[in-house]
Amino acid sequence: MSDTQNSVRWDDGRLVRVSRRWGWLAVLAIGLLVFWLIHEALISTGNPNLVPALLFFGAALVPAAFVSFVAGRRLDFGVGPAAVGVTALVGGAIGVTTAGFLEYRTLILLDVLPMAAVGVIEEAAKLVMPLVLLLFIRRRSPGDGLLIGVASGAGFAVFETMGYAFVELVQSGGDLHVVDHLLVVRGLLSPAAHMAWTGLTSAALWSAAAHHWRRRSVGVLVLVYAVAVGLHTAWDSFDDDTAYAVLAAVSLSLLVFTTHRLAGLSRSPGISLPTPASAMAPTSHG
Fold first, then answer.
1. What is the Cα–Cα distance from 163 to 187, expressed in whole angstroms?
2. Of 181, 168, 151, 158, which is closest to residue 244 (Cα–Cα)?
3. Distance in angstroms (rounded) separating the CA atoms of residues 144 and 177
4. What DSSP line would sit under 125-164, residue for residue?
5. What is the full DSSP assignment across 178-202?
6. Among candidates 268, 259, 269, 267, which has minimal Cα distance to 71?
7. Could you state, in order of their start, the residue ranges of all structural domains in the chain?
8. In the predicted model, is pLDDT for residue 39 greater than 90?
């Protein structure tokens, strides 16, 4: 009886681990199916009431799948699904609103909006929600910061992509082919980049807070933020799908590497959690 119970527990535990690790594929597959169904229904019926659903699923599909991917890694997260969901929704809304206001004020002030200024403003705006949560969450770790940052970047990407898609739809006179291309390019590549940049910067931010803002951890935060701004500026400077794909791949690779690195070290007792490239957290003292 005991062996049977142990076997059942082992099977249940294995099922939970598999579901958690590969659940993002289910999110992606189901989302693609729903998007295709809405798209086909819109084409066949011409019902404009389906347009908001098409834009939402097209913009939210990849961010939702990637947040599920990060949440399913073997990290000891101290933040729950509710915090992640609120961050994606509220953080995304605050991010695009703050960025839009600051970019407008910069344009009025300088009569031009430099690409570097866009990168600085948007990368800072996406950190508003991670900073707010940092004030209320006592257990601070780079892993939590990474997940919160990915959620904030995902929300920002969803709202931004929906905005671009809506503008394209209006300006093209309702041409779905134009919107399809935008949703493929921005819906796939832009969220990957935004989530990577904010995830890495937020991980460095939370690591610096966890280490009481020591000089080294703050230096790493500044460095990671500068890299994120540089990648963002490069993204805004190009108007080429290949360049977008390369930048998204580089950004995503850094995030995936950091996620696996944090997951590995979170299971090693007595080791500080590093962040991209070398370490976002200094080695533990005593």
1. 12
2. 181
3. 39
4. HTTHHHHHHHHH-SS--HHHHHHHHHHHHHHHHHHHHHHH
5. HHHHHHHHHHHHHHHHHHHHHHHHH
6. 259
7. 75-266
8. no
CB 146 within 8 A of CB 259: yes
Residues in the chain: 286
Which residue type sits at 75? L
The long-range contacts involving 219-223, CB below 8 angstroms and separated by at least 24 positions, are 220/275, 220/279, 220/280, 220/281, 221/280
pLDDT for the residue numbered 155: 92
Q: How far apart are the first and last CA of the chain?
A: 47
Q: Which residues contact 225 (CB under 8 A, 6 or more apart)?
A: 123, 201, 204
Per-residue pLDDT tens digits for 42-57: 888 878 788 888 888 8
Residue with tokens 């080429």: 240
Q: Write the DSSP symbol of residue 48.
A: G
Rounded Cα gap, residues 216 and 219, in angstroms: 5
Residue 99 and residue 84 in contact, taking contact as beta carbons nearer than 8 Å: no
Q: Which two tokens stand for residue 187?
A: 């819906």
Burial of 57: CB neighbours in 10 Å, binned 0-12, 13-18, 19+ = buried
CA distance 210 to 234: 31
Q: Is the pLDDT of residue 278 over 60?
A: no
With a CB cutoff of 8 Å and minimum separation 6, the contacts of 188 are 62, 248
Give whole-number Cα distances, 244 to 77, 192, 239, in Å: 31, 10, 8
Residue 13 has pLDDT above 80, yes or no: no
